[in-house]
């Protein structure tokens, strides 16, 4: 999901008044919730967004139905098997550790650490109570400090953050929070740093030696955070000769028809020293071999800022096999010259035209503008391109993960989990699906293969995790191309289980639900929609 839509709270007399009022309400709600944290109870947290329309259900209402054991239809392809559900927290985002078998999940009220040494049986080991809007892409980093591996997750604060472990601090927009997860039983807030640009997402360039991280950014710019001292992070100044801290420039954070001032969204880094920045301005590739001096080497062509290739925002990306890139080769993920992109349009309630998954050919990395050109796009929840359910009105493409077998696992909110075959990048096909009437899949992840010491490599298992704002964490196995049928046994029914009571952190996030509903308000045709 994109950064908070400023147009949703504008007032005619003062363009910023509504935004400031919303922030004050949210901060007050967060502070009250922190005071209530001492009495944790069995409760259902409010979701990160709501659905517009009279009588429509919110995420929290759907989660309540799920935990109450409401029976709903499920549609699934035969090559996907449900293995387990861990419903303890309404998931928004997740990330795997590299050097140890852990998976971290962020919700609007907590950060939870899962032991995944047995990947089909995730087990909670630690929880940090933490209200945050919205941290939809929690990112991982680690580095050696005095010879000891320190593990941490980076939390981006869109609008507000509060935790009972730091009662004197209310986080505001444009702040990065570093949560130390070195001790999996006791995650803790280790440091914070404000930035001059939007922190909707914050990504390490090198996860296994995180010295620098880049923010989502906005208005054609982004920030670089220096993490050489993780106890005292700081923003890097792009131009020390001027007053104040100057951000860095990126066309991916530039404007399009939906964002008159521009909004960046995500940085994804590959194994060849490049970073791809996605946003309202399309996608831009940078050489990041010198992290504090990124060099623009490629951009999407005119299709990167116009429909149907970018009706709203380029959300996230991946460039498999990047180190194999050679200019002039036929487009193929095997050749490292195909960019995989989510184009999100979560405000569009027509599933046939909402955000899509796309492939783009990278023609060169020599700085020539417009050298990244479209190949194919698919919306698998569109009728005729997969399975669609009549309840769905919130079904844009969202976060995805690539498997070396050539299969992408992607979350489509109410559209569920979708598997996409990109072995022929010019002809994307749906490979499998799981969809339920009580589900909002925000993220999908292939579980990495690990060595005997628990260290993850580049290989992936056939196990998929989905982070679901209604169901929590789901585990699936997939019959991949050329592989034998999966034999992992089922551990339970596709539901909350025989005991619907779920212990979660009751932090009173009604304010977040109301704010997020504002974010989903669709503007009139042709209206300029600022970030």
What does this protein structure show overall?
The chain is mainly beta. Helix 1 (17-36) packs antiparallel against helix 3 (510-519). Residues 3-56 and 485-531 have low confidence and may be disordered. 7% of the residues lie in helices and 36% in strands. Strands 7, 8, 9, 10, 11 and 12 form a 6-stranded antiparallel β-sheet that branches. A 5-stranded antiparallel β-sheet has the order 1-30-29-28-27, with no helix packed on it. It has a 4-stranded antiparallel β-sheet with strand order 2-33-32-31, with no helix packed on it. It is built from 3 helices and 33 strands.
List keywords for this structure.
531 residues, mainly beta, 6-stranded antiparallel beta sheet, 33 strands, 7% helix, 36% strand, disordered N terminus, disordered C terminus
The whole-number mean of residue pLDDT values reads 83
Percent of residues in beta strands: 35-45%
Low-pLDDT residue intervals, each spanning 5 or more residues: 3-56, 485-531
Largest sheet: 6 strands, antiparallel
- What is the count of DSSP helices, taking H or I runs of 4+ residues? 3
Our Rg estimate from Cα atoms comes to 21 Å
Distance separating the two termini: 13 Å
State the assembly state of the protein chains: single chain
Net shape: globular
DSSP, total strands: 33
Helix amount: under 10%
Secondary structural class: mainly beta
What's the gist of this structure?
By secondary structure, the protein is mostly beta strands. It has helices at residues 17-36, 59-67, 510-519; strands spanning 74-76, 80-86, 93-96, 102-106, 110-115, 123-129, 131-134, 139-145, 148-162, 170-172, 175-180, 188-194, 202-204, 212-215, 221-222, 224-226, 234-235, 248-249, 264-269, 274-279, 282-287, 295-299, 313-318, 338-344, 356-362, 372-378, 400-403, 407-411, 417-421, 429-436, 441-450, 456-468, 472-478. A hairpin with a 7-residue loop joins strand 11 (175-180) and strand 12 (188-194).
């Amino acid at each position: 999901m994109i950064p908070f839509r400023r147009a949703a709270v504008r007032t005619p007399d003062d363009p910023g008044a509504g935004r400031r009022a919303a922030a004050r309400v949210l901060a007050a709600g967060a502070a009250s919730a922190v005071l209530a944290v001492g009495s944790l109870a069995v409760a259902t947290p409010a979701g990160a967004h709501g659905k517009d329309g009279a009588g429509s259900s919110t995420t929290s209402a759907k989660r309540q139905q799920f935990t109450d054991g409401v029976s709903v239809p499920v549609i699934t392809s035969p090559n996907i098997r449900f293995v387990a559900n861990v419903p303890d927290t309404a998931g928004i985002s997740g990330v795997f550790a590299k050097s140890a078998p852990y998976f971290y999940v962020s919700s609007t009220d907590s950060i939870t650490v899962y032991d995944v040494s047995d990947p089909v049986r995730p087990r909670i080991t630690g929880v940090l109570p933490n209200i945050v809007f919205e941290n939809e892409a929690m990112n991982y980093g680690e580095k050696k400090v005095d010879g000891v591996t320190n593990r941490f997750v980076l939390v981006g604060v869109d609008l507000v953050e509060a935790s009972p472990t730091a009662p004197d601090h209310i986080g505001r927009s444009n702040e990065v929070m570093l949560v130390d997860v070195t001790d999996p039983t006791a995650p803790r807030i280790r440091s914070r740093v404000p930035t001059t640009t939007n922190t909707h997402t914050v990504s390490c360039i090198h996860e296994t030696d995180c010295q620098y991280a880049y923010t989502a950014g906005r208005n054609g710019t982004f920030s670089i955070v220096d993490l050489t001292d993780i106890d005292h992070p700081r923003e890097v100044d792009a131009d020390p000769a001027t007053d104040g801290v100057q951000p860095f420039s990126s066309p991916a954070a530039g404007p399009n028809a939906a964002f008159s001032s521009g909004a960046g969204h995500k940085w994804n880094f590959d194994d060849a020293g490049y970073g791809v920045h996605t946003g309202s301005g399309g996608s831009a590739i940078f050489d990041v071999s010198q992290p504090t001096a990124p060099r623009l080497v490629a951009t999407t062509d005119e299709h990167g800022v116009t429909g149907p290739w970018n009706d709203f925002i380029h959300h996230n990306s991946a460039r498999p096999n990047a180190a194999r890139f050679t200019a002039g080769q036929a487009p193929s993920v095997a050749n490292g010259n195909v960019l995989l992109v989510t184009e999100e349009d979560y405000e569009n309630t027509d599933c046939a035209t909402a955000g899509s998954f796309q492939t783009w050919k990278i023609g060169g990395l020599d700085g020539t503008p417009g050298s990244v050109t479209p190949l194919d796009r698919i919306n698998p929840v569109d009728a005729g391109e997969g399975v669609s359910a009549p309840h769905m009105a919130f079904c844009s493409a969202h976060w995805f993960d690539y498997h070396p077998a050539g299969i992408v696992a992607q979350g489509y909110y109410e559209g569920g989990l979708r598997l996409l075959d990109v072995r022929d990048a010019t002809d994307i096909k749906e490979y499998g699906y799981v969809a339920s009437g009580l589900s909002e899949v925000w993220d999908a992840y292939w579980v990495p293969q690990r060595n005997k010491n628990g260290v993850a490599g580049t290989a992936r298992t056939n196990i998929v995790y989905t982070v679901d704002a209604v169901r929590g964490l789901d585990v699936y196995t997939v019959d991949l191309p050329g592989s034998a049928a999966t034999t992992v046994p089922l551990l339970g029914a596709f539901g909350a289980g025989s005991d619907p009571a779920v212990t979660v952190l009751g932090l009173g996030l009604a304010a977040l639900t109301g704010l997020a509903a504002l974010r989903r308000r669709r503007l009139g045709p042709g209206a300029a929609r600022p970030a």
